[in-house]
Amino acid sequence: MKKLLFLFLLPILTYSQTSHNISSGNFYYYPSVLSINIGDTVTWINDGGYHNVNFDINTITGSSFNNPEAFISSPTSGPVLYTHVFNTPGNYDYDCSVGSHAVMGMIGTIIVNNVSFTNEITSEKKLIKIINTVGRETSHTENQLLLYIYSNGTIEKKMTID
User: What confidence tens digit (pLDDT) does each residue in 70-105 have?
Assistant: First the structure.
């Protein structure tokens, strides 16, 4: 019989526009999934190496990410990779288009919520995607920590043990 090991809901609590930092290094963005609100600013901090942030064409597949807006930063080894203010709600997937960094796991997702303040989790939620702890989209897998991302901005951490 399957047992749910734990479930953790993260409600989105924001009172004003907020700045968020994402650490970027050799083959990672941390956090790899970030939920923010319209008007929030995200800055990618370079922990070391030569990287960029690519919200345009998926480096792995060669297809468009189909994000609400597309942009790409110039590769740099400087301390700040890029800063962006998100003014359009939706789900944004991105990667590092330098070399084989995306294939090695340097991918991420930003969820931009359509509200500037919420303290309730609505019952109207649809599963958008399931990702593993390295940020790769997956299907339900037993004995592995997974993040279930929903349309209302909530994220559930789940692990099913068989």
Answer: 999 999 999 999 999 999 999 999 999 999 999 999
> How far is residue 21's CA from residue 101's CA, in Å, rounded to a whole number?
20
Q: Where are the domains of the chain?
A: 3-161
Q: Which residues contact 66 (CB under 8 A, 6 or more apart)?
A: none
Per-residue DSSP letters for 79-141?
Answer: SEEEEEE--S-EEEEEE--STTTTTTT-EEEEEEES-S------S---EEEEEETTS-EE---
pLDDT per position as a tens digit, 28-46: 999 999 999 999 999 999 9
Superfamily of domain 3-161: Cupredoxins -  blue copper proteins (2.60.40.420)
